[in-house]
Fold this protein.
Amino acid sequence: MQIKSDRELFRRRRRGGGWILLLLIVVAASVYIGYNLWAEVIETSPIVGVPATPTPLPTPTPSPLLYIAEAEDAYWSGYISQAIVAYQQALDLEPNQTDIYIELARLLVLEGRPERGLVMAREALRRQPENARAWAALGISYEWLRALPEAQAAFQQAIALDPTQPEPYAYLAETYMARGNWFGANDALDTALKLNGSNVDVARNHGYVLESQGSYSAAIQVYREAIAQHGEIAHLYLAIGRNALALGNFNLALEVYEQAVEADPYSATARDRLGWLLLLQGEYERAEEHLQEAIALDPTFGGAYGRLAILYFQRRNYEDAIDTFRPAIRYGEARTRRRTVFFVITAEDVGGIGDAPSNLEVARAEFVHPENPESPLRGIIRGSGEDSPVAGHVRLDVLSGRYQVSLTDMPPVPTGKVYVGWFLTMRSPERQIIRTEPIFPAPDGRVEMNGSTGAVAGPAIESYYTLALCYYLLNQCSDAIPYIEVALRIDPTDANAVRTWELCTR
């Protein structure tokens, strides 16, 4: 079935039953057609000794319109994960519908999978390079992946293509705040509010700007107004909870986290937040229930593993704590690696490679992010500049941190320089951008390199030093040392990390 109008299909609706009526019409039509086909079979069957075998009734093909309506209804009812599934089903039937990719990109970002949102946004732009909403979806994916310059450029392109849409201005305000530009954020937000102050994404970013500026009570009010207008959307409740905790209002935070779980019981993030707060209040059984449910919903949720491990530690169950801290760190670091966007090769001074890549870019790759969160990332390397012959590929194993780089036609290294590869925006525990060792091309311009990112930023420092403390309490300090070392890389002044180091090395 060919869908002719993108924007016609995606007018957002409050939760309603329109799609149910459409479904009933389709079912009724199918029954009517089936009945007439059956009657025709009976009437035209030859008169023989045995009844004619009826032709099987045709099975109606689901329409992408039905899945789109189901997705919209699920979103406005608070079920983001179900909305994503419905949009994906619509996409299976209508793979060339640009707006489905755009909606998926936005919801995947809100669900906490911006790397997959980036894939959808790129697909939308591949089909419609001048689509302003696709550029906005690309920008919000970049922003949540901390590729801030690329995000800002994408939003500005969206605004240039269609300055009447409020979302790019709202998203741009979020990016400006992340870059420390308060004036730019307020200006962009004012424009978004003037264009459509009731837009749910404008409201979310309005609250985020207020929150980033320390106006937590005002942010809570904005989020509450958005819920009153648009319905019980789980990520808005989570935002209220975050601001309530900043104000020290644990009762309000507990209330809205419970509302978030009720609004979307399939949200691993909502379960995790509620479980963590219950743990802080000493309600171990309820906390364990919600944290285990978060892990069941997302088996690669490193943060939920970490909080569950702390629960075991507090109950002096050190063996289970160790077994749970390990995946907490493993998946936490994998999440950071999985969110790597670019691999860039630059020419750096031999005498001192800085903490960030220089402007002398030689080649670049954009990583492709597979749907399976444990699958490796891959990227095609292309030389910077129209006439550059450089080509190759890069592979990054998100679980182990091992990477391979293969290049051809690399030019000779300039005098006084050295080639270095950078994984943007992956950072070390010290918050420095992860880079390769110096790259030395062979005389024919070929490069074959293997390496490892080592530990990366992501898991909380508590996961490292508490795991080490569990080993210490079980008289296994040799196993504790590597984790204490990472904790001290994150913060060499942390009192708990320092004390655990002293216990295991005295």
In short: DSSP finds 21 helices and eight strands in the chain. The chain has four domains: 1-95, 130-335, 339-452, 461-505. Strands lie at 342-349, 361-368, 377-383, 391-396, 402-408, 417-427, 433-435, 447-452. Confidence is low (pLDDT under 50) at residues 1-53.
